[in-house]
Amino acid sequence: MQSAHEAFVDYLRHKGLKVTQQRLRILNTILQTSRAHFNAEDLMEMVNASGQARVSRSSVYRTLELLNDCGLLRKELLRDQVSHYEKTSAEEHHDHMICNLCGRIIEFSSGELEALQDKLCREQGFTPESHVLHIRGICRACAAKQGKSRA
Amino acid sequence: MQSAHEAFVDYLRHKGLKVTQQRLRILNTILQTSRAHFNAEDLMEMVNASGQARVSRSSVYRTLELLNDCGLLRKELLRDQVSHYEKTSAEEHHDHMICNLCGRIIEFSSGELEALQDKLCREQGFTPESHVLHIRGICRACAAKQGKSRA
DNA sequence: CTGACTGCAAAATGTTTGCAGATTC
DNA sequence: GAATCTGCAAACATTTTGCAGTCAG
Description:
The structure is a homodimer. By secondary structure, the first copy, chain A, is of the alpha+beta class.
C-alpha cells in the first residue's frame, strides 16, 4: 500500500504531468487537515492560511480535478451549486445524513447496505464503480430543539 | 387522492400565493411530458415549444422552487452545477444508476433498501425526509460493448 | 530547451434578484 | 385596490479558459 503522496506522484508521472510545488502544497494541505469535507473555497483558504506563497484559485480547481481523477478525493454534490470534495485516502466508503435545519453532516457506513446495493446492481446487469447516498432530514439535536420551541 | 393540479392550487392558496397562467402552463407542461428528468433549461424549451405566450426564465426557476416545495417535483443533483428535477407525481420513490460511459439513467426501487435506510436512520436518531441514492458505474450495454472492443 | 503549469483577468455557466408594469384575488 | 407576479436585465456565485510568463523534466 503506497502513501497518498506516492500515489499522486505516480499518477502525474504516468500521465506525463508535472510534480509542481503548488500541487504538492495542495495535497499536503488536504492530508494534514482533519476536515473530511470541503469545497474549493475552503481549500483555497486552508492552503493559503499556512503563510508561504499563494496558490491561485485556478490551480486549486485544476488540482482538485486531478485528485478526483486519481481517486484521492471524491467529488460530491452535497448542496446546490457548490461541489464538495471528500478525502478517500481515509478508511472505507461512507454515506451521509444531512440535516435540513442545521446543515450538519452525519457520516455512517453499513456493510449491509453495500451488499444490498451490489445485489440490486447485479439484477440490472450494472457494474457499480461508486455510489452516493444522501439522506436528508432532521438530526437528533434539531428534532429535540423543535420539540421544545413548538408554538 | 387529489390530482397534481389540485394539489398545486391548494398549496398556492394555503400560502396566499396566486394561481397564475404561467404557473399553470408550467405545471401542465410537466404533467404532459413523458420525460422523467429535466433541468430548468429543458423545461423552458418544453413550455415555450407549444406556441402560446412565452414564459420567462425567471418564472420557470421560481415555479420550479414552488413545485419542489409542495412535493410535486424533487430537486436532484445528478450532474455538476445543473439542478435536475424529477416528477414525483408518478409512482413511488426510486433511485438511480448512472452509466459513466453513456450517461444512461436506470431507475430502480427497492422496499428492502428503504427499510434498511430507515433502520440506519433510527440508529442515529435521525428523522429522514428524503434521500438520494446514485450508483455510478457501467451499464449492461456499455459493458458488452467494452468487452468486444477491448484492444 | 520544450512542454506543461501558474496566476491573472476575463468569460462562461447556472441561478437569483430588483424593479416597473401587469395580474390575481 | 392591495398584494403578488411577471419579464427583463443586471447581479451573483462558482467554475472554466486564454494567455503571457515561469518552471519541471
